[in-house]
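Batch job 17 of 40 flagged for manual review because the log was empty.
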Amino acid sequence: QRSPEAEALVTRSARFTYRDLLSNAEEAAGAMQAIGMAAGDRVGILMGNDEKWLALFYGAALIGAVTVPVNTRFKAAEIDFCLKQADCKALFYVERFLGINFGAMVREIGFSNAVDVSSGIPRGQYRPVSVSPEDVLLIQFTSGTTAYPKGAMLTHDSMLRDAWAAGT
């Protein structure tokens, strides 16, 4: 709000202001709402770190949905485990990343509510909702001492505190 025209993100393909990031996040939030996503629902994101990933993450945050980043090194069975363990209602993915065919893996596991955003995130009309600092923002899967990853639940508050601490 203080500097909407300031540069916020630079990727290989474009430069984005804070106003652009908010607009992209609101469009992603609207797309999620259009497919029935709501506060507390878990949404998987399977792609490299780029402007689409960020728009989906912030879009999920705007509607109170919980982002579940899916490790881009996972094989089909691990993707399936992650999505089921986190109880994901939707998955946004790109067909290919670093030569890996995510589309084939998503089709192999038969995840029903998967949205290919290779050509862009679908547009939707964002309807603002109330989100609390104590709401879960992200489920980060970490490697555990067993063969199965564990999902760590992080709140809006804890993520903002971490970002603040990293920036000081």
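Reviewer: the log was empty due to a logging misconfiguration, but the result itself is present. Residues 66 and 137 are 5 Å apart (CA to CA). Unflagging and moving on to job 18.
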